[in-house]
Each structure stands twice: as structure tokens, then as C-alpha cells.
Design goal:
This protein has helices at about 20-30, 65; strands at about 10-15, 35-45, 50-55, 55-60, 70-75. The protein has about 90 residues and is of the alpha+beta class. It has a single domain (about 5-75), classed as Ferrous iron transport protein A (FeoA) (SH3 type barrels, Roll). The chain has a 5-stranded antiparallel sheet.
């Protein structure tokens, strides 16, 4: 499926980057590359941007660029933190 059509909060494995070399280079510099795991956190209004999370990195991507990127849905493994949560500890008491 393409990244623009991925359901919210579904763990995904990224399979490809967009065709624009400058954007592909920028994403690679941030560590976003084929094989990484990410989630779509939310969508802007129709035709808007996507809010994506990969570990502790949150970033926005135009829907048109996301439509050029292929992703594979992953099944969460029991007891494993979903991609994008960064294994955050629970809030401090008191």
C-alpha cells in the first residue's frame, strides 16, 4: 500500500522513498529509509499533510509525496512497544 493510504496508528515498514531525489536525500539524512518502522499519527484536512512518527522522530510529509512511498503493514508483537512510542516510561508518580 502507499503511505498516504495507510491507516492511522498501524505499525508499518517503509519499502520505498519518493521519486524526488532532494526529498529522498532529506529523509535519509533523518534516518527515514527503506526498512524503517513508522506510524501515521494523524492526517491534515483532505489533500493535506501526514504527521508521521519513527521512534522519537516526528515529521510531516505532503500527501502527494507519501503517495509515492510504499509501506507494508506490520502486526504488533505482543509485549513489544509499537513503532513511534520510543518505549517511553510511564509518567512520574506524584
Amino acid at each position: 500500500m502507499n503511505l498516504a493510504d495507510a491507516p492511522l496508528d498501524q505499525p508499518l515498514e517503509l519499502l520505498s522513498l519518493p521519486s524526488r531525489p532532494s526529498l529522498g536525500n532529506r529523509l535519509r539524512a533523518m534516518g527515514v529509509k527503506p526498512g524503517c518502522h513508522l506510524v501515521v499519527v494523524r492526517r491534515g484536512r483532505p489533500g493535506g499533510i501526514l504527521h508521521l512518527r519513527m521512534g522519537l522522530l516526528d515529521f510531516m510529509l505532503r500527501r502527494g509525496d507519501a503517495a509515492q512511498m510504499e509501506a507494508l503493514p506490520l502486526s504488533p508483537t505482543p509485549g513489544e512497544d509499537p513503532p513511534g512510542t520510543g518505549g517511553r516510561p510511564s509518567p512520574r508518580p506524584g
